[in-house]
């Protein structure tokens, strides 16, 4: 690399001077950032980004790969956030809406099962971060699971096989 190329890179790559967010943090469509915010318990940030992504996708009518992946993550995180807010009926409806956007479960397509495993995992991670006792969380999840299964049109046996294979208990 010549000196001229190095100088050009420094001109274009700027770190924030005020300790503010990096450009990556400002990219609403970055699915990794959604997961980082969710894992860190910054649920309001996840909700805000998911709403903005849904609005932008609706206006555009289509999306790039990163936006599509982020919308997929939002489809998993949104029901979990609604459960956390005490709005289980809306959570089930949101899960159903997400699942219905994918093909029905068949030997050729298991996306709905993957989505449902993701939703249940997100709820479990969120409750663990909120220090919900394991027994209470398990009881609450067992009460909610039949509704989620119906909403996603996934049978319990198929779900349990996928959940256990993904490392669930």
3D structure, described in words:
This protein is mainly alpha-helical and 169 residues long. It has one domain (23-165). It is built from nine helices and no strands. The protein has helices spanning 3-12, 23-26, 31-39, 43-60, 65-84, 88-100, 111-129, 134-152, 156-165. The chain is globular and about 40 Å long. The protein starts with a helix and ends with a helix. The model is unreliable at 1-27 (pLDDT under 50).
Question: What would the keywords be for this entry?
Answer:
disordered N terminus; globular; 0% strand; single chain; 169 residues; mainly alpha
Largest sheet: none
What's the order of the H and E elements? Answer: HHHHHHHHH
So what's the overall shape?
A: globular
- How many strands in all? 0
Low-confidence stretches: 1-27
Mean pLDDT: 81
Please state roughly what percent of the residues sit in beta strands, choosing from under 5%, 5-15%, 15-25%, 25-35%, 35-45% or over 45%: under 5%
How many H/I helices? 9
Rg from Cα? 19 Å
- How far apart, in Å, are the first and last alpha carbons? 52 Å
Structural class: mainly alpha
**Helix percent band:** over 70%
- Indicate how many domains the architecture comprises: 1
Write the layout of secondary structure elements.
Layout (H helix, E strand, L loop, with lengths): L2 H10 L10 H4 L4 H9 L3 H18 L4 H20 L3 H13 L10 H19 L4 H19 L3 H10 L4
Produce a short descriptive summary:
The chain is an all-alpha fold and about 170 residues long.
């Amino acid at each position: 690399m010549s000196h001229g190329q190095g100088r050009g890179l420094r001109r274009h790559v700027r770190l924030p001077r005020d300790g503010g967010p990096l450009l990556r943090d400002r990219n609403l469509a970055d699915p990794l950032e959604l997961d980082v915010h969710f894992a860190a318990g910054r649920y309001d940030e996840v909700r805000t980004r998911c709403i903005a992504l849904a609005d932008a996708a609706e206006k555009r009518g289509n999306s790039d790969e990163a936006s599509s992946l982020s919308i997929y993550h939002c489809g998993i995180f949104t029901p979990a956030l609604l459960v956390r807010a005490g709005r289980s009926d809306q959570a089930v409806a949101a899960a159903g809406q997400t699942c219905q956007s994918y093909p029905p479960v068949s030997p050729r397509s298991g996306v709905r099962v993957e989505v449902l495993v993701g939703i249940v995992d997100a709820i479990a991670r969120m409750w663990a971060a909120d220090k919900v006792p394991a027994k209470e969380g398990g009881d609450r999840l067992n009460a909610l699971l039949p509704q989620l299964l119906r909403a996603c049109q996934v049978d319990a046996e198929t779900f349990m096989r996928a959940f256990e294979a993904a490392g669930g208990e």
